[in-house]
C-alpha cells in the first residue's frame, strides 16, 4: 500500500532512525513528524485511557498528538528534525498509567 503522504525531496540524503524497534531510512534534516508519516508510520502513540491511536495533527507544536519518546524524554515529533541515529519509542507503550 502506498503511503498517504509524500516526501518533498525524494532525492534527499537518508539516514537510519529507529522507531518502535524498526529501522527506517528517513531524509536527513526533514521534519520528523512529516518524515514518519511519509514512511507510513501513522500511529505515533496511543491515548492513556482508551488506547486510541494518535498521529501528527497540527504540525506546529500546539496539539501534542505527535508525542514520542527520545532517550527517555517526551518530545513533539513535529518540532524535531531527522538526524542520524535517533532512537524513538512510542511513549509509555503498554503503560495503562500514562498521564499524557
What does this structure look like?
This protein is mainly β. The chain has one domain: Ubiquitin-like (UB roll) (Roll), CATH 3.10.20. Helix content is 7%, strand content 27%. It has a five-stranded mixed sheet, with helices on one face. This is 2Fe-2S iron-sulfur cluster binding domain-containing protein. GO terms for molecular function: iron-sulfur cluster binding; oxidoreductase activity. It holds the Pfam family Fer2_4.
| Tally of DSSP helical segments | 1
SS strand fraction: 25-35%
Sequence of secondary-structure elements: EEHEEEEE
Q: Supply Rg.
A: 13 Å
Please describe the topology of this protein.
Elements: E1 14-19, E2 22-27, H1 32-38, E3 45-46, E4 53-54, E5 67-70, E6 73-76, E7 87-89
Parallel strand pairs: 1-7
Antiparallel strand pairs: 1-2, 3-4, 5-6, 5-7
Keywords: Oxidoreductase
GO molecular function: iron-sulfur cluster binding; oxidoreductase activity
Pfam families: Fer2_4 (PF13510)
